Amino acid sequence: MVDSIATTSLLGHRPVCGGNLIRDVSAKRKSLNICRFTPAEFLGGRVVVSLPLTKSKQDGFLSCSSIKALAVELTREAYAYREDKLPKKGNSKIDGGFDRKPGLWPPENRADKPSLRNPLLRQERMGCGWLGAIFEWEGVLIEENPDLEKQAWLVLAQEEGKLSPPGFVIKRIEGMKNEQAISEVLCWSRDRTETRRMANRKEEIYQALQGGIYSLMPGSKEFVGVLMHYKIPMALVSTRPRKVIESAMGEVGIVENFSVIVAAEDVHRGKPDPEMFEYAAQLLNFIPERCIVFGNSNLTVEAAHDARMKCVAVASKHPVYELGAADLVVRRLDELSVVDLKNLAAVETSEFGSPEPELEMELEKDDSDTSSVDESFW
Question: What EC identifiers does the entry list (predicted)?
Answer without folding.
Answer: 5.4.2.6
